[in-house]
Amino acid sequence: MRIPDDSFLKTLPIAHRGLHNAKKGIPENSCAAFENARLCGYAAETDVRFTKDGKLVAFHDDDLERMTGERAKVIDRTYAELCKLRLDGTSEKIPLFSELLELIDGKIPLLIEIKNQPERKDIVQETLRTLSGYRGEFALQTFHPLYLLQVKRLAPHILRGQLGTFMPNFSLQNYVVKNMSLNFLTSPDFVSYNIENLPFSKARRKDTLLLAWTVRDHETLQKAQKHADNIIFEDVRPDLS
């Protein structure tokens, strides 16, 4: 699918896990972070993964410890149990993905990363089901090429992107992620690649739009402006003009 010229993927910097700021008590992937992105006029990126009881939540890590202090995996806790936890010492809780969509309500565009969930086979289907009827602007991305292939087959009208990065050790899976070797099957509309690994010729195949993640300072911002079409950022405030 050709990305429209006015798509947020081309025109609007994307706040990584919402416009969070730990010093101001706004944790990543919290309702406060997405409201902050809205107030400042940025698009926002988030992550979706399953709880034990099959609820989709907006949370990045497999493990809860970094953001909540709980020594457990998200997939091993029910949503009711997660509701008792708080993000990074604030009053913010882990939001349901559906709750996040209700909050955003089309006010800002949303870039959604589908996390790898080997414990479940239906995360793509559930993500698409939750998004059905949502009227806001959004796109999907993932590291998992077979997830992207499912999106292509089940919802070819939805803009989809392949995430890529260099991995520290060699394996077939890491080779595929680095080189995006299955793009000929998944036909991504855009590529999201680690700014630390750019420039990388395989991230610039044909005319595919290239996003750079995660831009955190002015040095990497300048690098991204040279090598990519748009950025996923945190800790800096890119110009909206």
Largest sheet: 8 strands, parallel, barrel
Shape: globular
Computed over alpha carbons, the radius of gyration is: 17 Å
In total, the number of strands is: 9
User: End-to-end distance, in Å?
Assistant: 27 Å
As a percent range, the share of helical residues equals 25-40%
Fraction of residues in β-strands:
15-25%
Which class do the helix and strand fractions yield?
alpha/beta
Indicate the mean pLDDT. Answer: 96
Strands of the largest sheet, in order across it? 1-2-4-5-6-7-8-9
Q: How large is the count of helical segments?
A: 10
Low-confidence stretches: none
Output the helix-strand order: HEHEEHHHEHEHEHHEEHE
Short description:
The protein is α/β, with parallel strands linked by helices and 241 residues long. It has helices at 8-11, 31-40, 65-68, 79-82, 97-104, 123-131, 145-154, 172-179, 183-186, 218-227; strands spanning 14-15, 43-50, 56-58, 110-114, 138-142, 160-164, 190-194, 209-215, 230-233.
Overall description:
With 241 residues, the chain is an alpha/beta fold. It is 29% helix and 18% strand. It contains 10 helices and 9 strands. The chain has helices spanning 8-11, 31-40, 65-68, 79-82, 97-104, 123-131, 145-154, 172-179, 183-186, 218-227; strands at 14-15, 43-50, 56-58, 110-114, 138-142, 160-164, 190-194, 209-215, 230-233. Strands 1-2-4-5-6-7-8-9 form an 8-stranded parallel beta barrel, surrounded by 5 helices. A hairpin with a 5-residue loop joins strand 2 (43-50) and strand 3. The longest helix has 10 residues, at 31-40. It is globular, with a radius of gyration of 17 Å. The mean pLDDT is 96.
